[in-house]
Write a structure and sequence with these properties.
Layout: H1 6-12, H2 26-29, H3 31-42, E1 47-51, E2 54-59, E3 62-69, E4 74-78, E5 91-92, E6 102-106, H4 109-114, H5 116-131, H6 147-154, H7 157-164, H8 168-179, H9 184-200
Helix pairs in contact: 7-9, 8-9
Length: 207
Amino acid sequence: MNTTSADSYLQHGCGRCERFRTPQCKVHQWTEPLVALRALLLETELREEMKWGSPCYTLDGRNVVMLTAFQDFCCLAFFKGALLTDEDGLLDAPGANSRAVRQLRFTSAEQVHRRQGLVKRLLDEAIALERAGARVPVRESPEPVPVELEEVLDADPRLRAAFDALTPGRRRSFILYVSGAKQATTRTRRAQRCIPKILEGKGFHER
């Protein structure tokens, strides 16, 4: 994984797959819009760091927005994007289960320039929300813990305590992972795989 700098990211890629440092890296497909977006990000007070292989922009150590590339687009991924004003419906959730993160997607530098005013407004709003300590509301009816995961947690008080101490988002990552399997035997195997990460205090997808 590329942990060096945003310049290295633009030059070599994120380092999360075998295409790292090759012309086939998806980052190279979107170099121009990524460069244009980075220029707008550097105009803000946010600090540029590298996290999870991509440039991440923080305020007082808290994640605000990420600059990243996918196969079909590049985007600004706002960590609390669900709270942003989106009158034109241009912000997309990364997936059906995404609660907080919202993406503003681009496929050309021209598109970035055309939406420059929108980008600046969203960045200003995201910074203001972070400074105010705003939080994305937790749903009143969260997904139930699968029986197979409950059994694993109940069998080990230390594991149960570690799970209960996780943030709601981290607990939910295990719930979705285990409950996503159709067969009970598969859910049981998945529940067992969760144990090391829970004890480490991490979400399922964290490294």
